[in-house]
Amino acid sequence: MDVASEHSTDHDAHHGPAKGFTRWVYTTNHKDIGTMYLWLAFAMFLIGGSMAMVIRAELFQPGLQLVQPGFFNQMTTMHGLIMVFGAVMPAFVGLANWLIPMMIGAPDMALPRMNNLSFWILPFAFGLLLLTLFMDGGGPNFGWTFYAPLSTQYAPPSVTFFIFSIHLMGLSSIMGAINVIATIINMRAPGMTLMKMPLFVWTWLITAFLLLAAMPVLAGVVTMMLMDINFGTSYFSAAGGGDPVLFQHLFWFFGHPEVYIMILPAFGIISHIVPAFSRKRLFGYSSMVYATASIAILSFMVWAHHMFTVGLPLAGELFFMYATMMIAVPTGVKVFNWISTMFRGSLTLETPMLFAIAFIVLFTIGGFSGLMLAISPADFQYQDTYFVVAHFHYVLVPGAIFSIIAAAYFWLPKWCGRMYDEKLGKIHFWWSFVGLNLTFFPMHFVGLAGMPRRIPDYALQFADFNMISSIGAFIFGTAQLFFLYIVVKCILTGEKAPACPWEGAEGLEWTLPSPAPYHSFTVPPKFED
Amino acid sequence: MDARTQRSLVWLVLLPVAMFGFGFALVPLYDVFCRVTGLNGKVNTSPLAMPVSAKVDLSRSINIQFVTQNNANMPWTFQPLSTEMEIHPGADSRAVFRVKNVTDHPMSAQAIPSISPAEAAQYFHKIQCFCFNQQHLAARESLDMPVIFYVDPELPDYIHTITLGYTLFDVTKLAARAN
Ligand SMILES: [Cu+2]
């Protein structure tokens, strides 16, 4: 049973986790920290999700029913902030913590104490952010993009807390990224060259560089806001010689790489799951690596596609339009590779594979609507409509979120040593799939017909589609409570899982027993390709 | 922590620190970029010496339009004395704007210029402008403010109309803080 001892010679490795609450506060173990990240992300996902439920309940019918417009604005803003910074990003960091050391044959992350710090900053950051909802004047109400001067001159007094919490999350992400890079660069098992690394490791390495380059710019932007609000500078205030458009340039210089921070690790996950359930090697490994790297580089050259209507010069409109469309090329390579991997494979459709296939199909739909938005003359019509909302939800929900759920099902046996209930997993998939498409597909139509985003009320002709969206949202929302039930049931009473429960899965993590011992790979494993 | 990790840590910390600095460096860079290229209708907000060689091009005339607006809750009245004029490229021209502080207390204001079409911004030169300074007016005081400018004869010939817009900002608090 205790196979851990096979891998460990020094006596330190024999002691298990400490007992009680302090285990979690003081832990430097990558598995403990990964677990905490994942549970925090899941809690945030439910909180952000309930805000979405408030939004959809208000939009169920035209007119104002349930909430005041001011509160509605706080809900849309907080929903975006919580989902981006609280759910998706920590979930990926949690997966990185759990999986990267096991995938590269390392005993832990390179900087375990910093790892502890970078997690424990987060509950305080989000605590502060959520507390703003109860302060005088309410929480942030200026949209998750917090454009100046909405977020400076016209912001509620709680904006300073918002700025501080963004600083904290940024710090946490940067420390997490430093840790990931230091681990991958220095701690790979002998024989694992860069081009033999599993793709989840590769995509996370590139994501970590994006984090290191983009998050400090965000920290700079909120620092400038802080100074404009409290210290009389005029970065974004035209009265003092500043420029509000500058805010948008700086924000999106961070913001576009940020969207790839939220999708590149997902590409990695899908590149593990699709081959496993196709019982084939991944098609085009090296092209996957190069495609990921080129997406990352391009992501710093396209930011103004969010700003086509601010009055860019013609040359700018054209440059950002073509540069944006170029991203479709490496993304297309990836989709092609996944489909080629499935082609003539012996496919089985377990829950992780269902989510992975839905990822490929629905993410591609989101990619195509992104291409439509990239056409700058057309964007003048789409800007700030529900079409944009449909687009980024199609890349984030069946993109980032589905990949995280797929990863959870795929590696859950490794994490807790038990299998989830396959039948319930499939029900969860179809429940989510139907809810998701009901919610977001009609948004394309109302958007093209001219319904603006971020409004609590709308013209009567949009009523039917909005009602469908709201019903879909309630279906999707309850499906995620069901997911919580499935996970808890798996942890408590799931069947015992073998070391490798998936016939076609490859990788060092599957050579460890399930559940993975508290200390693994204290002696580097032999890596053979 | 082994020596390799320590070495990586050095550049892994330097990179985000440098990027934080880069974010701030983008502020002047962005400004310089807009000013040099004349994009975004940004115009020089410091006086320009009249070049000696500027010849007046009597063969064309340009229609200059003036628009004014108040930012947010700025209570002053702010109007050009005439809303448009015909000028020849290269010739000195003068326009006057009238402001009045309609409130019962002293206030300070700053006008921010903008030019459209944006392509014309780099050909529009101000020799003297009230937008180079703040205006401080006592309660109920009014003031006529001139702008003296010329349009570069190099202005592309498909541009026939240039609009000079000013937005008036209340900077009473900023001015008080500066003193
Ligand atoms: Cu973008």
UniProtKB/TrEMBL annotation, chain A:
Spell out the SUPFAM superfamilies in the cross-references.
Cytochrome c oxidase subunit I-like (SSF81442)
CDD domains xrefs? Cyt_c_Oxidase_I (cd01663)
Pfam families registered for this protein in UniProt: COX1
Q: Which membrane topology describes this protein?
A: Multi-pass membrane protein
Q: PANTHER family under this entry? A: CYTOCHROME C OXIDASE SUBUNIT 1
Regions crossing the membrane: 37-57, 77-99, 119-139, 159-187, 199-227, 259-277, 289-308, 320-340, 352-375, 387-412, 424-445, 465-488
Q: Where is the Cytochrome oxidase subunit I profile domain?
A: 24-528
Q: Where in the cell is it found?
A: Cell membrane; Membrane
**Assigned EC number:** 7.1.1.9
**Descriptive protein name:** Cytochrome c oxidase subunit 1
Keyword Translocase (UniProt): yes
- Which of UniProt's keywords are assigned here? Cell membrane, Copper, Electron transport, Heme, Iron, Membrane, Metal-binding, Respiratory chain, Translocase, Transmembrane, Transmembrane helix, Transport
Give the family per the record.
Belongs to the heme-copper respiratory oxidase family.
Q: What InterPro entries does this protein map onto?
A: Cyt_c_oxase-like_su1_dom, Cyt_c_oxase-like_su1_sf, Cyt_C_Oxase_1, Cyt_c_Oxase_su1_BS, Cyt_c_oxase_su1_dom, Cyt_c_oxidase_su1_bac
What catalytic activity is recorded? 4 Fe(II)-[cytochrome c] + O2 + 8 H(+)(in) = 4 Fe(III)-[cytochrome c] + 2 H2O + 4 H(+)(out)
Upper taxonomic classification of the species? Bacteria, Pseudomonadati, Pseudomonadota, Gammaproteobacteria, Oceanospirillales
| Pathway listed | Energy metabolism; oxidative phosphorylation
Query: Main subcellular localization, coarse class?
Result: membrane
Question: Is Translocase given among the entry's keywords?
Answer: yes
Reported function = Cytochrome c oxidase is the component of the respiratory chain that catalyzes the reduction of oxygen to water. Subunits 1-3 form the functional core of the enzyme complex. CO I is the catalytic subunit of the enzyme. Electrons originating in cytochrome c are transferred via the copper A center of subunit 2 and heme A of subunit 1 to the bimetallic center formed by heme A3 and copper B.
From TrEMBL, chain B:
Repressor as UniProt keyword: no
Query: Which family is this protein grouped under?
Result: Belongs to the COX11/CtaG family.
Q: Which SUPFAM superfamilies match?
A: Ctag/Cox11 (SSF110111)
Query: What keywords were assigned to this record?
Result: Copper, Membrane, Signal-anchor, Transmembrane, Transmembrane helix
Q: What does this protein do?
A: Exerts its effect at some terminal stage of cytochrome c oxidase synthesis, probably by being involved in the insertion of the copper B into subunit I.
Main location per UniProt? membrane
Species: Pokkaliibacter plantistimulans
Q: Where is the signal peptide?
A: none
Question: Which locations, inside or outside the cell, does it occupy?
Answer: Cell inner membrane
Fetch the InterPro entries from UniProt.
CtaG/Cox11_dom_sf (IPR023471), Cyt_c_oxidase_assmbl_CtaG (IPR007533)
**Cross-referenced PANTHER family:** CYTOCHROME C OXIDASE ASSEMBLY PROTEIN COX11, MITOCHONDRIAL-RELATED, CYTOCHROME C OXIDASE ASSEMBLY PROTEIN COX11-RELATED
Q: How does it sit in the membrane?
A: Single-pass type II membrane protein
Q: Where, by residue number, does the polypeptide cross the bilayer? A: 9-30
> What NCBIfam families would the database entry show?
PRK05089.1 (NF003465)
Q: What is this protein called?
A: Cytochrome c oxidase assembly protein CtaG
